[in-house]
Specification:
The protein starts with a helix and ends with a helix. With 454 residues, the chain is an alpha+beta fold. The protein is elongated. A 5-stranded mixed sheet has the order 5-6-11-7-10, with helices on one face. Helix 2 packs antiparallel against helix 11 and helix 2 runs parallel beside helix 13. About 1% of the residues have low confidence. Among the domains are: 164 residues, no CATH class; 110 residues, no CATH class. It contains 15 helices and 13 strands.
């Protein structure tokens, strides 16, 4: 009976009830946006950058700077190592700062120092077992020089050759669509292409140009004894967005078979060409969560998400690795707490306006538990209704995002159901916890106070 009375009281004070419902609906919208909509991207987001990189996440076994979060992870001693342009990576086109001085490499405290190549292969094997990973590729690159002449001056241009996962490039990243059509024969790489390459936009190589590869000596790369190699260029790819600089670096893509032959010809070992790992994910909507997870799991690696790389290039800013802490949960909890506190404040004011009613109920035999049930029923009803309205408002955007990633209907339904359930659960907990503020006000009212007119 007292629960029903609480619901009737909420209906009688519709203006204040509506205010509580609206505040809780806003909290639910913040929660749904943070947990589902705001945590990721549609399937085609950052498409050009993903085509160029060949993945959505890059892991490099080094740290440019040591943050407090990295140091707090513990388990490593940090050693400074020099950096040079002899070991190029795709990141060079986004930010040259890391290549000016050097970097820090983490060495486990409880074991011997692992060579970078061993550590990269170890992490790559672990990543292949992660449920969210669609593909993993250990990335390599080797530098080359190309002799050029301008204004009667001879000089060398610098670039690098990189092997690509041709099957993934064609099926997953649709690289054929990135080919710039300068002729009927222009195309992307095919599996099995040998001594053929594709160059990036802005570095178009004409027939007859030689790639000069440094050979290997005891002291490292030997640029005095260059090996001339002629690759058949079958196409040019471009990674551009409207009104933005091109994503391309001075790079030529080849098949792994071609790259292996070049390494054998120059004598360059895997330890000199391997620079990191790229990860492909099936669900872009969860990309930021995956990046945050990998930063925590591998504190000795620098982990970049594709949005960082794209933003760094578009804005000509340095890449930042971000803070490996997901602040969305904190925001979501705070939003519910604020909404519940606002509802509780409204109810507290209502309790004071209904002192006579509560005093009469107490005089007629209502117990403290009866009054508590009446007030909490009103608080919970407002919270649940507001949370349900806010959750439903965000569903069109949430559905678009999830469906764009080609998730199964079961996964979409389970994700939406779980998030709505969490939203209702948070609102219920907040309503109960903060509902005790108006309860305490109501329980202070006694029949004697009402009879005296106080």
């Amino acid at each position: 009976m007292f629960v029903a009375l609480g619901l009737k009281n909420a209906w009688r004070n519709r203006s204040r009830t509506a205010l509580g419902i609206i505040s809780m609906a806003i909290a639910a919208m913040i929660f749904m946006s943070g947990s589902t909509l705001g945590k990721g991207y549609p399937a085609r987001a950052y498409w050009e950058a993903r085509q160029m990189v060949g993945g959505e996440i890059i892991l490099i076994p080094e740290k440019i700077t040591l943050s407090t979060d990295t140091l707090a992870a513990g388990g490593y001693t940090w050693r400074f190592e020099k950096r040079s342009y002899d070991k190029p990576t795709l990141l060079m086109g986004f930010d040259s700062t890391p290549y000016r001085y050097g970097f820090m490499r983490g060495v486990p405290l409880d074991g011997e120092e692992e060579p970078a190549l061993t550590r990269i292969r170890e992490v790559a094997a672990e990543l292949r077992d992660e449920p969210f990973v669609a593909g993993v590729m250990v990335r390599e690159a080797m530098p080359f020089l190309r002799q050029s002449r301008q204004d009667d001056i001879d000089f060398y241009e610098y670039g690098f050759i990189e092997p690509r996962d041709v099957k993934s490039d064609r099926e997953r990243y649709e690289m054929e669509q990135a080919v710039i059509r300068g002729g009927s024969q222009d195309r992307y790489l095919l599996e099995g292409d040998f001594m053929k390459g594709v160059d990036c936009y802005g570095w178009q190589y004409r027939v007859g140009w030689d790639f000069l590869l440094p050979t290997m000596s005891e002291s490292g790369y030997d640029y005095e004894n260059l090996l001339p190699v002629r690759l058949e260029m079958v196409g040019t790819v471009g990674f551009q967005q409207p009104f933005a600089p091109p994503y391309a670096n001075p790079v030529v893509f080849v098949t792994p078979e071609t790259f292996g032959a070049l390494k054998e010809a120059t004598g360059i070992p895997d330890s000199m060409t391997t620079w990191g790992i790229t990860v492909s994910v099936d669900n872009m909507a969860d990309l930021e969560s995956y990046v945050s997870y990998l930063r925590r799991k591998y504190p000795d690696f620098t982990v970049y998400g594709i949005p960082q790389l794209a933003a760094a290039m578009a804005n000509s800013e340095a890449i930042r690795s971000g803070v490996p802490l997901d602040m969305r949960r904190v925001t979501e909890v705070l939003s519910f707490m604020i909404a519940a506190l606002l509802s509780a404040t409204n109810l507290s004011i209502l309790m004071m306006a209904r002192k006579t009613e509560i005093g009469i109920l107490r005089a007629l035999g209502a117990t403290r538990w009866n009054i508590t049930c009446m007030v909490l029923a009103e608080s919970v009803w407002i919270a649940l209704l507001g949370a349900l309205i806010g959750s439903l408002i965000t569903q069109p955007a949430v559905l678009y995002q999830l469906l764009s990633n080609k998730l199964s209907s079961e996964t979409v339904l389970s994700t939406i159901g779980a998030e709505i359930g969490k939203s209702l659960g948070f609102s219920l907990c907040a309503a109960v916890v903060f509902g005790f503020l108006p309860v305490a006000k109501a329980l202070r009212v006694t029949p004697a106070e009402v009879m005296r007119g106080e």
